[in-house]
Amino acid sequence: MATKQQMGYKCCIAGVVLLLLASIAALVAVAVIQDTWGVKGYSYEYGIVIDSGSSRSTVYLYMWPGEKQNETGVVTEQMNCRVYGNGISEMKVDPEKDAKSWEGFKECMANVTKAIPAEKHKTTLLFLGATAGMRLLHMQDEQRSNAILESLREYLLSLPFIFHNASIITGQAEGLYGWITVNYLEGNLLEKNTWNSYLHPTGEKTAGSMDLGGASTQIAFEAQDNLTGPDYMYVKLYGYSYNVYTHSYLCYGKNEADKRVLDKIIQESSDPTYIPNPCYPEGYTTTMNASDIYDTECTTKPNDYNPDKQLLLVGTGDSDKCRSIVKTIFDFENCSSAQCSFNGVEQPPVTGEYMAYAGFFYTARAIGMDGKSDFDQFNASCRNFCHTNWTVLKEENKEKNISDRYLRTYCFASHYVFTLLAEGYKFDKETWKNMNFQKEVKKTSIGWSLGYMLKMSNMIPSEVKVILPLTDPVFAGLIFLFSALTIITVVLVFIFIIRTCY
Fold first, then answer.
1. Domain count, the chain
2. pLDDT confidence of 334, banded at 50, 70, 90?
3. Looking at residue 70, what is its pLDDT?
4. Which among 271, 335, 370, 492 has the fewest CB atoms less than 10 Å away?
5. Mind telling me the catalytic residues?
6. Does a structural domain hold residue 75?
7. What is residue 26's predicted lDDT score, i.e. its pLDDT?
């Protein structure tokens, strides 16, 4: 009987000890789960980039989750708004035009402000980047350039955002940011896997980027790691480093190159009241002031320059003559490196895929060669476009909604693009097939502003709210329950020990 009683006590003690250990384990587990299993709920962050180009300004609104992938935000374009009026480099000349430009800025910024949650206004960064138009103005009239930027800073500072900067970005940076945009949109930097997580694409090669603006053109592509020099920039994105060749050619944007070609045509004519222009379609005639061509740092003013001098240009639609004049604004002869593009600029050979956008796309679209094309087909399309009468051109391009001021330029522009790509960048019949003329990728505009936002998002702190697996009442209840069980079992163990000993 005593033995059975002792065995009973031992079993009771064992059960109570087991309950004690289980209660302690449960108590620790609840505390650990609450502390370590919390999900970090990142709110969305917003950033605004104003792209102030030579011909217009566009406001872009970007959004990304606060949880960054290897230090860089995963950015998407939420909206964009084109500012009414001319580029900012035209400001501080005509008060009436300035007033319209300011109205355009205010209208776009009001639309962007509405698209951002009110509680996020105080954390939204705002940038303005001015490109080649302002680079040229800064060379020509630094005082007016500074005054324009200062007036923009005053306005942007008045908005409910964190205004970061309004500055003129370098051509090299513009090229780099364009390269980042292209490869981000193409999925070459980051891709979403089956589990909805972002990963670096295995074995994915990057694409080259080519941007044709109004006052400058840029080329950028990934180069071998061992290549160095003033045109090479290292950039780190999503935890990976890239060595990018990037060069910008000021005065080789479509509008400025057009002025340089017009200058050559005018120099060949002795009669300003009748100037045959082989780069204008036959049947097209226009009158322009000399200032339209020479009021820029990209052309040299003639000795008898009069800004109000009237020039009558008559289209002759001569493709071969136009091509020969276009070539004269390039220097393909001088090169002190292993390989050059033009004007003595060193450039590695072009390989792999390339995205050509902005002015490249609009020119290719005008001659029916947007998307991917063939070297000989593109060349033939330049010729066909130039030899088409103006009346026919207007009729054929009605659906494309191209205004006369642009349509008249595409004979010159097509030859310019072909010469730049084939003889400048050295694309041949094989490598041309890897080129894609596009305006957008995945419904997002291709340009430097998205790449700029991706790079700048490294600076933006993430706002983190920890979402706990257990609500406060549940957590407190479990802690109370298992604490009570622990105390009760400790008391029971103590009672059994006392009874056993005495």
1. 1
2. very high
3. 47
4. 271
5. 174
6. yes
7. 64
